[in-house]
Amino acid sequence: MIRRGGGVRGKDAEEEWPSLVDLVLGWKLEDVMNENLFKDKMKRIPSTFSDLKSYLESYTSLLLEEMRAEVSSSLEAISTMPSGKISWIEQKNNKKVYDIVFDAVSQNSKACNRPESYIPSVGDIIILSDGKPEHISDITRNGRPYIVAFVTEGGDEDDDSPPAKYVIVSSGKIDSEDGKCQDGKKNQLFAAYLLNIVTYIRIWRCLDYNTAVRRNQSLIQEMVHYPLVAKICPKQTKDRSIDSMEIWSKLSTMDLNNSQNDAILNCISSMHSSNSSSSFSLIWGPPGTGKTKTITVLLWLMREIEHGTLICAPTNLAVKQVALRFLKLIKECSLDRACVGEVLLCGNKQRMCIDGDLKEIYLHDRVRKLLGCFVPMTGWRHRLSSLSDLFENGYSQYLKYLEDEKEDDSLSFFSYTRKRFTATYPELRRCFKEILFHVPKSIILEMNYNNIVSLLELLEDLNRMFQQKNIENVVKESFMYNDDQSGSGISSLSKFSETAISLGKIRFRCLKLLNMLLSCLKLPITSSKRIIREFCMESASIIFCTVSSSSKISNKNLELLVVDEAAQLKECESLIPLRLPALKHAILIGDECQLPATVKSKVCEDALFGRSLFERLSSLGHEKHLLNMQYRMHPSISIFPNISFYERKLLDAPNVKQKEHQKKYLPGSMFGPYSFFNIEDGKEDLDELGRSRKNVVEVSVIQEILRKLQKAHSKTKNKVTVGVICPYTAQVIAIQQKLGKMKFDPIIVKINSVDGFQGGEEDIIILSTVRSNSDGIVGFLSNRQRTNVSVTRARYCLWILGNATTLSSSGSIWADLVRDAKDRQCFFNANSDKDISRVLAKHRNETNKVKDTRNAPSKVRNSGVWVQVPSRSGLKDQSPSTSTGVGSRLEDTAEYVEDITVCLRNLKIS
């Protein structure tokens, strides 16, 4: 559940911090669509700040504008947004609060990936309408008011199925008859998803000055005042000593290169040295330089020296990748089944999609496993008590059992004891195995840990003994034997066999351990998932989560913050984890030469709202530890990005220079490790919404290349991974539709946007640049960071498809890329390959047919009369506009449509 306010109120605040939810719900439709709503409050975020208040204020209006832009964008594309039918709605005591139930069909259809499928999440902003909206005008159809709502409750993260009921707060009153039956007919009420504002709420809370001043100030003040921090916020004295020789000894076993070792040692030195100039350490990790390995080794060292650490990243995928690598490293460094109780992975169950080994450290799964160990009636303490009672009073209880048992088939003492033992021991063993694995040793305590291990060994010996034959009398004697009889002389012991005495002593050792654990082991006795969840969170010393979900963490033992992909994170979002009370140091790992955080609003983008803390500190001259050896790309691929983006600072690792890294997937120099395929016949088109672009010729060429790869490798069992990267979503969709359900075994094909491939790598990358026009217009393709990500994903082969003329005349980084390809003899005309040439010829023929059809006069029929309508080319000739380029062509299209509309209107055709 999320508190509706989304704003934090201080008791002695001069001004109440407004509720973000109330602000969003208070926007009218015209406000949302008004790009100038916050124009008078927009200011470019500076690089340095005078004080904390001005720092926080620089983000508030921009945050609101970015949210407005997201809502506006969703409304404009409302037909593509997930939606669902509301089957029941009821108003609560509060006028604008409602209980709602979604249609079961809508919920279950999520698996079909249809746009209409929608399962709400807490924090969603939804828009309500009396029909499934296909256009923004449908929202206020028939005078219906513009009503949006905020999903404030619904479901528990520990539940495995969608909740039946949700609670929403609406911007206005909802017709009480909506969603109910009248005269056998049902008034339909639909909800369409617009965006989730959970992260925005968490950032908004951090921007409240009256709350911020009461939080941990050490890192925040340095962040605000850098680089003057030494004068304004003196460095705190470090209170933890560290053995540098021990650290170096551990590092030497990890097979790191010099730059990785230096980065780790410098970070640790900054953490523990009182002479360090900053509480922030920056690690610069270009593509393929072993950034994840560096992070995991650093975390392993933090675990070794018991230093509480929070590890964050902007996305669930990035968090999972680091967590999985860290878990693998722990297991490699452990001789037996390592305890991972101090390691915890937190996050939303639905979004994280946890499987495999990650379940061992995932909070939801840990709570579920420990619940069975902690419940009062069947948990660890109950099992210990049961065995203690059996070992101490087993014989007397058996005698009472015989008195109470009337039947002739009463159990023998052996059967009675074995039955009770086997009913308890397996469950106790299971409980303690889960506890030893999922609860940190520091919480169990060394003495208890050793006692548990010893107890389980003794109980296993007894368990094996109970499986033997002809020992009934021995077991009975062992329970009649008292440990204090060992000091009563030989006559006292003569009535017991040697085996019984030995077994009796084992019983007493077990009893002693059982009672010690009952007295000293302090673990929860509860059936509350909430209490167990809090126990796990407070017990962990290495916690993984997204930056946003770190708002749920309040662990007071976390002194170090590590942020992966820090250059992709808006600086204001960094405030969420930096609020932790015990933090003393932060390590930011990223690369500002790759894609920054996504920003919808152009105004916000220009105001540097998407700039990261990593980038700002770097621009102010903060020291960065460069990882300078790349292990991913064939040297032919790494040359261009190394020169263009990294000032020749990167080195090719030995592995990429070896013969094994030289792959030849298709014959001919055209399909070498680095090639530019010039496709002059390409044609760029706008998609149906007029928002994104596609190039169907490049789509067909990609299909042909994949077909050739499949044919060349069909007889081998070696898997080859191919990534198809497109800067435009429309091109991604066009390729997916073209390929359909085609299979290319053993070729594994992944198709995604540039943003979707950031952080990924494949054997072969096929890059479709899409743009093909005579004016050299490439739009956002000219972004250097986007280009860098595109050309650094391939291990062995990078094949770039594009119109060389368009790219060369763009005046962008792409002109440099084409020139580089030509200089290195890596430039090829696509039609030089006979199979691709055939595909291109087919497209030329189809294009010519379409042109002939378009230029032919069209006719419209009205009451038996055919009326000629001007052709598109005719309209263009008559247009007074002399401008050229994409913009003018769009104007021509609009003019063409308008002329047809006028003709139809004159003919009274509707």
What would the keywords be for this entry?
910 residues, alpha/beta, disordered C terminus, 7-stranded parallel sheet, 44% helix, Rossmann fold, globular, 36 helices, 6-stranded antiparallel barrel, 5 domains, 27 strands
Description:
The protein has 910 residues and is α/β, with parallel strands linked by helices. The chain has 36 helices and 27 strands. It has five domains: 1-214, no CATH class; 216-364 and 543-626, 3-Layer(aba) Sandwich (Rossmann fold); 376-520; 632-847, 3-Layer(aba) Sandwich (Rossmann fold), CATH 3.40.50; 856-906, no CATH class. The strands form seven sheets. A seven-stranded parallel beta sheet has the order 11-12-10-13-14-9-15. A six-stranded antiparallel barrel has the order 1-2-5-4-3-8. The protein has a six-stranded parallel beta sheet with strand order 22-21-23-24-18-25.
